């Protein structure tokens, strides 16, 4: 733990939100925290989040404000779950150069995830996001902009990886329940019905190298079919 | 493997409304794309048995569970592993979640959703 900033200890992740808000950062809460909150609101158990994920607007002035917030939080780079962290210099240009920043500060672990415009970007997420007031212990109140559940699901689908795919069935169930309860009011998005297209380019190579390539391609297709089988709704 | 049967029975109690055996059977059925009735037919058990295992209301025991899974061409392998860094990570995650109030914050978000407002005003 960084003892330069003991005064931040004990506030919890709400402190991160409070600092981002005070620095007038445009961002939304995404990832497991958003997924778990939406799921919990409709009685679905999703994987418990252990850190918070924030997606900021990648416009230069906003990233300058993100940088200011990070300095105020004494944010350091997190390696795996080693919470000591490494100090780093940053500004708007440095922040936009990476797609993801795994960080830690005395208030807890958090990630900055830059969503590029062609994946909807911050603007796309903000259009469906809601502002939620959270009462903290001691009566403190913070307002958190929360990405819509359909967007949380979409981002996990795009990101892929076992950790993201594992939580998708629970989140899809939560989306199904929410939409059933609300009739998908308020313009909230749905990913319930949509076409998915997968395409593979098969390269034909002869000899031993070709055999290895064939096995690798077969493995990739098998993994994809397993993923589809594991993520479709069961009757 | 005799000891493993006891180990499985000891851990196949209800987990979040389902059971370990139930989750395995659901997973196997999804993987094969089968209905409960078709899985039951292939495994040589009744559909009620499959439904009860999936719901966690019937503990099939290791042998019955293996029979059901073998019926759809899947093997059940039980291994004992030395506790390692990976399992410590799970504990660390739970501890981190509590220490930094992530659980409290998520609860607050979930409770506050009903009274939320759009981030961006509609035109």
Short description:
The complex is a heterodimer of chains A (235) and B (123). By secondary structure, chain A is an alpha+beta fold.
Textual characterization of the structure:
The complex is a heterodimer of chains A (235) and B (123). In chain A, a hairpin with a 2-residue loop joins strand 3 and strand 4 (82-86). Chain A is 44% helix and 18% strand. Chain A is of the alpha+beta class. Chain A has helices spanning 14-22, 31-41, 60-72, 92-96, 121-128, 149-159, 162-182, 207-231; strands at residues 27-30, 52-56, 76-79, 82-86, 100-105, 108-113, 130-135, 141-146. Chain A is built from 8 helices and 8 strands, in the order αβαβαββαββαββααα. Residues 1-9 and 191-196 of chain A have low confidence and may be disordered. Chain A is globular and about 65 Å long. Chain B is mostly helical and 123 residues long. In chain B, 62% of the residues lie in helices and 5% in strands. Chain B contains 7 helices and 3 strands, in the order H-E-E-H-H-H-H-H-H-E. In chain B, strand 1 and strand 2 form a beta hairpin. Residues 1-17 of chain B have low confidence and may be disordered. Chain A binds chain B through residues 11-14, 17, 28-29, 33-34, 36-38, 40-41, 45, 48-52, 81, 83, 107-109, 126-127, 129-137, 144-146, 186-187, 226, 229-230, 232, 234-235, and chain B through 16-17, 26-27, 29-33, 35, 89, 92-94, 96-97, 99-120, 122. Strand 7 of chain A pairs antiparallel with strand 3 of chain B.
Lateral arrangement of strands in the main beta sheet of chain A: 1-2-6-5-3-4
Please give the largest β-sheet of chain A.
6 strands, mixed
Give the integer mean of the pLDDT values of chain A.
Answer: 80
| Largest interface by Cβ-Cβ < 8 Å | A-B, 47 and 39 residues
The largest β sheet of chain B comes out as: 2 strands, antiparallel
Q: What class, by secondary structure content of chain A?
A: alpha+beta
The unreliable regions of chain B are: 1-17
Helix content of chain B: 55-70%
Q: What is the strand content of chain A?
A: 15-25%
Amino- and carboxy-terminal Cα gap of chain B: 66 Å
- What's the total number of strands of chain B? 3
Global shape of chain B: elongated
């Amino acid at each position: 733990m960084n003892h330069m900033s003991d005064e931040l200890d004990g506030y919890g992740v709400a402190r991160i939100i409070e600092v981002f808000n005070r620095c007038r950062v445009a961002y939304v809460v995404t990832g497991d925290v958003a997924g778990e909150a939406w799921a919990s609101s409709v009685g679905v158990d999703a994987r418990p989040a252990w850190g918070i994920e924030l997606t900021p607007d990648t416009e230069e002035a906003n990233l300058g404000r993100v940088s200011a917030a990070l300095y105020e939080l004494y944010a350091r780079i997190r390696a795996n779950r080693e919470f000591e962290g490494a100090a780093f210099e940053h500004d708007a240009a440095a922040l936009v150069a990476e797609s993801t920043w795994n960080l830690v500060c005395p208030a807890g672990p958090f990630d900055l995830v830059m969503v590029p415009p062609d994946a909807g970007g911050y603007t796309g997420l903000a259009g469906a996001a809601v502002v939620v007031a959270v009462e903290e212990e001691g009566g403190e109140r913070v307002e958190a902009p929360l990405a819509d559940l359909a967007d949380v699901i979409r981002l996990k689908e795009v990101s892929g990886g076992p950790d993201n795919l594992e939580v998708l069935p629970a989140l899809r169930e939560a989306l199904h329940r929410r939409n059933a309860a609300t009739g998908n009011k308020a313009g909230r998005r749905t990913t319930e019905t949509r076409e998915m297209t997968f395409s593979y380019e098969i390269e034909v190579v002869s000899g031993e190298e070709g055999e290895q390539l064939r096995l690798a391609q077969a493995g990739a297709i098998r993994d994809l079919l397993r993923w589809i089988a594991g993520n479709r709704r069961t009757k | 493997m005799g000891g493993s049967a006891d180990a499985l029975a000891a851990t196949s109690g209800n987990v979040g409304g389902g059971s370990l055996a139930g989750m395995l059977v659901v997973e196997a059925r999804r993987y094969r794309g089968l209905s409960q009735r078709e899985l039951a037919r292939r495994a040589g058990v009744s559909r009620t048995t499959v439904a009860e295992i999936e719901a966690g209301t019937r503990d099939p025991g290791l042998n019955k569970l293996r029979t059901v899974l073998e019926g759809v061409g899947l093997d059940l392998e039980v291994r004992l592993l030395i506790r390692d860094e990976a399992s410590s990570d799970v504990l660390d995650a739970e501890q981190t979640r509590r220490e930094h109030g992530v659980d409290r914050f998520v609860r607050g978000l979930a409770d506050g959703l009903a009274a939320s407002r759009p981030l961006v005003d509609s035109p």
